Task: inverse folding
């Protein structure tokens, strides 16, 4: 027999069944097995009671020996049930065991019938009545333990009724005649109840099987969904969510003495492939990148795709820092190999890698991730296509960044932020055509913080929207004070361009101004700010254009898709990047590029400004390329409001181009 099984074991046992009938058979065996102790207890007590009734009247073998043998056999059977094989059965084994139970039950009932028959000659009238009760009651009550198996119940009841009729039925004794009739009907009801029980059992088993099947499917679906939720579908690598889970699990300061190494990878030059060859080509590059990373890292590390063209890896504690450096360089070298695109063209991308160091104490693996992120930022800032380890200088910069960040969060920007203005001059007559408003931050704690520092930190920390709103508000105030200024430009960051919340708040702020003020406001955007989400940038810029504002494209010529932007977005002004202005008189190619841009702007009716003019030679070359509007230190560094106002009122005047050429050399401001 089987041991009593818990519900989980029972469910696993039913999973072995191939059909509902087999499942019912296994459940019948389980139900009967659970009733075995009660059955043997009942039969043992009944046998002892019957034997004791005839002590002194019948031979000792019948009154003591038979009950003793029965008790011994029952104990053996119970021990077999208790300590026997409890493994999960297959349907064929269950069917065989049920047949064994049926045979053993028939033998048992036959044994009890023979025993009652041998005791009859020694029975008085009352004892004969007790023998009939023993036969009828014991047999019928025993079937309750096997009610789940109608065939077994039928065999038991038939044999019980047969033994009763054979030993006690007599046409001349009304008691036994009516007792036989009642027993026959009662046994029939027992049998019908057993059949009903089996039907209910079959329904329950089928329902449970369906429930188990649904649970398995749900579990499999949940596992699949979890796998999909943690896997990048394009490359098959773990995704950002899985990576951050792996990062948290990679280091526990309470138990781990040595740190893992976390590396971040960013592809350089991926965006142009998407723009020029399409997303299919871009996907090919990403899949190939994943393949190369797995080839380089092998089983030594886990590699994930964080999204876009960003990847990451975690090296275990067993990898030395020297080996970590070698692996990072191997990644850079692997990504320098050309990639074949679906159209059979070949293209190249490079990879910048930043990875954490073990030279600094950390509180969690998240600190290592911040190290890698900082090192990657420095890698892309200095030169693309290189691997950089987090260093002491990075730690200093990171600490400074944290200090500036905290000060920026607590700053009263309305009071601490001020504007300076760099004039944009018409070089022909020296008139101020417009000016560019630039933010300066004077922190009570840190003093004057360079704009390149706090703007970069604000962008990284997601605080540019607050800065932009303050700058635009102050610029509008200044425009109200300077009605003589033709226009003033304000820079929008990449985060501003793709944020509807920021653009809506700016629209509301600008709409509150009179038309004479808001039409003189120019919004400058850089090419790089358009890379993240072109459609969202277009949508937000159109809001400003509908209000009558002019839009300027700053740093033109440094991005990958300059001409595309001129084609798809309606710009009023193009500002040629200062790198062209600084090098315009050093190479013929530089002059040719500036002249080409100027000619393109003229053909599109777009105003063109060149930045970075610091010498008379650069100005002369710029004018020969057709540029009249210039911005640079040759005329002025950024001025405060009072200084610029002197130029607006005519108190001061910038020299014209002719005056510059004829006069003495000017010092760069």
Result:
């Amino acid at each position: 027999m089987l041991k009593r099984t818990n519900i989980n074991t029972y469910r696993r046992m039913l999973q072995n069944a191939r059909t509902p009938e087999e499942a019912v058979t296994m459940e019948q065996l389980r139900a009967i097995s659970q009733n075995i102790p009660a059955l043997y207890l009942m039969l043992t007590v009944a046998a002892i009671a019957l034997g004791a009734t005839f002590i002194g009247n019948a031979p000792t073998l019948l009154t003591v020996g038979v009950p003793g043998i029965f008790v011994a056999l029952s104990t053996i059977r119970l021990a077999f049930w208790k300590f026997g094989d409890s493994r999960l059965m297959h349907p064929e084994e269950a069917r065989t065991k049920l047949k064994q139970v049926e045979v053993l039950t028939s033998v048992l009932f036959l044994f009890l019938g023979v025993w009652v028959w041998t005791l009859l000659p020694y029975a008085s009238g009352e004892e004969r009545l007790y023998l009939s009760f023993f036969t009828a009651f014991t047999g019928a009550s025993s079937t309750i333990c096997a009610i789940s198996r109608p065939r077994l119940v039928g065999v038991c009841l038939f044999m019980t009724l047969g033994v009763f009729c054979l030993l006690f039925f007599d046409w001349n004794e009304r008691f036994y005649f009516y007792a036989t009739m009642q027993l026959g009907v009662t046994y029939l009801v027992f049998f019908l109840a057993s059949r009903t029980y089996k039907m209910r059992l079959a329904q329950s088993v089928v329902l449970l099987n369906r429930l188990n099947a649904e649970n398995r499917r749900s579990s499999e679906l949940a596992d699949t969904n979890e796998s999909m939720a943690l896997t990048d579908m394009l490359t098959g690598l773990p995704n950002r969510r899985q990576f951050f889970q792996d990062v948290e699990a990679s280091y526990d300061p309470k138990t781990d003495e040595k740190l893992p190494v976390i590396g971040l990878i960013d592809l350089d030059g991926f965006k142009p492939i998407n723009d020029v060859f399409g997303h299919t080509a871009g996907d090919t590059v990403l899949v190939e990148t994943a393949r190369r990373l797995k080839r380089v890292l092998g089983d030594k590390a886990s590699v994930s795709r964080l999204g876009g063209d960003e990847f990451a890896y975690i090296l275990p504690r067993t990898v030395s820092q020297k080996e970590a450096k070698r692996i990072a360089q191997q990644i850079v070298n692997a990504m320098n190999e050309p990639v074949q695109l679906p159209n059979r063209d070949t293209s190249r991308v490079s990879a910048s890698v930043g990875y954490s160091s073990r030279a600094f104490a950390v509180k969690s693996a998240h600190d290592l991730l911040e190290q890698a992120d900082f090192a990657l930022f420095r890698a892309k800032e200095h030169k693309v296509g290189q691997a950089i380890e987090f260093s002491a200088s990075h730690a200093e910069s990171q600490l400074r960044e944290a200090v500036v960040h905290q000060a920026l969060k607590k700053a009263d920007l309305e009071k601490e932020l001020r504007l300076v203005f760099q004039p944009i001059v018409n070089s022909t007559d020296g008139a101020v055509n417009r000016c560019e408003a630039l933010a300066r931050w004077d922190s009570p704690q840190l003093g004057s913080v360079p704009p390149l520092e706090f703007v970069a930190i604000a962008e990284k920390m997601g605080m540019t929207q607050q800065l932009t709103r303050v700058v635009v508000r102050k610029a509008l105030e200044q425009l109200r004070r300077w009605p003589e200024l033709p226009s003033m430009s304000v820079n929008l960051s990449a985060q501003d361009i793709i944020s509807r919340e920021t653009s809506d708040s700016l629209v509301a702020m600008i709409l509150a101004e009179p038309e004479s003020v808001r039409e003189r406001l120019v919004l400058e955007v850089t090419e790089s700010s358009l890379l993240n989400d072109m459609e969202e940038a277009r949508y937000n810029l159109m809001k400003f254009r509908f209000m009558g504002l002019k839009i300027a494209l700053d740093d033109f010529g440094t991005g990958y898709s300059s001409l595309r932007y001129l084609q798809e977005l309606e710009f009023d002004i193009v500002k040629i990047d200062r790198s062209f202005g600084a090098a315009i008189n050093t190479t013929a190619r530089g002059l040719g590029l500036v002249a080409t841009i100027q000619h393109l702007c003229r053909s599109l009716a777009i105003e063109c400004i060149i930045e970075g003019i610091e010498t008379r030679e650069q100005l002369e070359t710029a004018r020969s390329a057709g540029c009249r509007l210039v911005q640079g230190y040759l005329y002025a560094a950024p001025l405060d409001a009072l200084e610029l106002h002197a130029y607006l009122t005519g108190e001061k005047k910038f020299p014209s181009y002719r005056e510059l050429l004829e006069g003495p050399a000017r010092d760069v401001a």
Q: What stands out?
A: Residues 1-7 have pLDDT under 50 and may be disordered. The chain is about 60% helix and 15% strand. The longest helix spans residues 174-229. The first strand starts at residue 261 and ends at 268.
